[in-house]
Amino acid sequence: MDDDATDSPVSERVGDRLRERDETLAVAESCTGGLVGSKITDVPGSSDYFDRSLVTYSYAAKQELLAVSREALDAHGAVSEAVAAEMAQGVRDTAGTDWGVATTGVAGPGGGTDATPVGTVYIAVAEAAPWETNESGVTVSHYEFDGDRREIKDRIATQALSDLETAIRE
Predict the structure, then answer these.
(1) Per-residue model confidence as pLDDT tens digits over 107-146
(2) How many CB atoms neighbour CB 76 within 10 A?
(3) pTM of the model
(4) How far is CA 30 from the centre of its chain?
(5) What does the angle CA 50 – CA 51 – CA 52 come to, to the nearest 5 degrees?
(6) Residue 95: which residues within 8 A CB-CB, separation 6 or more?
(7) What sign for the dihedral angle of Cα 81, 64, 167, 160?
(8) For a Cys staple, 119 with which of 24, 80, 145, 165, CB 3.0–4.6 Å?
(9) Which DSSP string do the residues of 50-74 spell out, in sequence order?
């Protein structure tokens, strides 16, 4: 979902919703290289709800900073539903925030395969429910975007914020 001229940018809408709910956010990024965090911090007052963005490009960074399991990385690779879910849960839990968002994909122009072409991305949104409710969870969405590297990264970052906005509404 792209921003449109008649509406405020998705980064502002997400910020407004988080502020209204007194909730916080942390982001784990791979293919977007910090762009999601940049879009969030473009909004004045984002420090009210934004805790951190970790750029975890390598397997080692995903393991060290987000506790992504070796098994998930080995079995599925970094660009996968399983790893996206662990990234979002890991950043949410290590930051102690209400929400965690993660992006992992292939921005190109190289690195794609027949199974995972350039433009493939997994975006995960993890919510922390109150303790002892067993309602915390994570949703992962798969997308494929066209364009050059910068266009793909921008589309992924915007989609990640849109997915978060949808999750907050639900």
Answers:
(1) 988 888 888 899 999 999 999 999 999 999 999 999 999 9
(2) 15
(3) 0.93
(4) 9
(5) 105
(6) 24, 26, 51, 52
(7) negative
(8) 145
(9) EEEEEE--SHHHHHHHH---HHHHH
